[in-house]
Fold these 3 entries.
Entry 1:
Amino acid sequence: MSVRTGKIALGPLEISILRYLWRKEGAEVKTVFRELGSSDANSLNTVQSAMERLFRKGLLSREKVSHAYVYRAEVNRMQMISRVIDDILQSFTTDSKDSYLLAFLDHAVESDTQALDMLEQMIKDKREAAAAKSGEGNG
């Protein structure tokens, strides 16, 4: 699977690397290669190039430790999903948020009958967290 929007382009290997690093504190290229690359017939150089591209895109950070770089995810999974969705929405809609919110709700209903209940709870949790956060600034 690849992800390509107006601003974001990620190939299958880059997505696999991000998924791997979201589960780890950080890793060298050789470690990522052993975990991901060898099973997909990717060479060490291919994995290294993909991690370099992710670094240049601002999705990974790196720190030189001894003889090698240790890479870490610079964005978490939810931030990445949010970026992709935002980019897609900006590409397809020029009108109000209503159209894509309704499209999202339609998709949620079609995907899972419990989705609306889950969505309602998530909205409630977000509102409570936002209220608590704004309350901290007032105290």
Entry 2:
Amino acid sequence: MSKNPRLTRRGSSTRLDRKIFGVSPQKQNSTYAKFDLQEPPLNLAMQSGAGAISRVSHFGIEVDSTDEMLRWQKRLTEQGLVKLVESDTKCCFARQDKVWFSDPDGNAWEVFYVREQLPVAEAPACCG
């Protein structure tokens, strides 16, 4: 996955991303930072900007196991970033475990593990 949001607080976002991912940006200057991650597979480039700032419902990082979910939850909790933990919740047409946090521009992020896919008719379309 590749994301390139325009942010008002690129410096704060870079510091937050160091905490979240546990690594420094691969490239960085006063207006740009790029994290090219192997785990999770993510190319995240951020630019400082004025005017139109990136806004989305939320960003998500899907993990492959309950153990990986627990590792993310532990790391984000240790960093003081967790806003909400959801266990065995039905959302987005799936039964999931989630940990939510926000970036400095107010964008919501979830780290989630899908326990089971649900039929579209049986699950609410929620999220964010």
Entry 3:
Amino acid sequence: MYCILLPAIYLIICSFTDIKSMKISLPLSLMFSLTGILLSLFSLTNHQNIFDLILSVSAGLLIILASFISRGSIGIGDGFIISVIGCFHSSWITVCVIAYSFFIAAVFCLILILLKKQSKGVKIPFAPFILIGYIFNFLTSVKLI
């Protein structure tokens, strides 16, 4: 349960700070990452093995790389967030959260553009969409029977 709640708390904090300042706290990200890694080493997370942990964290590292390549169009902090999720969850869950997050953000931006509330090229905080994608992932994966 804590493997779902700890990242959720982290995502809530990041969402508020991202909306307010468009920044993600590196010390907070490192603290949660270390917590997730320590729990993984004691087999208390969803990772099946160390390779899955490395693969999960690598998803965030790829987003950080994309941030450098795109000259900041994608925030480095978004990569930190995905890496933290990867520390707690399997590579499959991490990829699903990324996919849901991008899809939800794309729909939101499309609606804003169609309603002429925003123009193309405006930066928006991505952490709230990661939080929504995270919640959506777990709501859709809950087995009721």
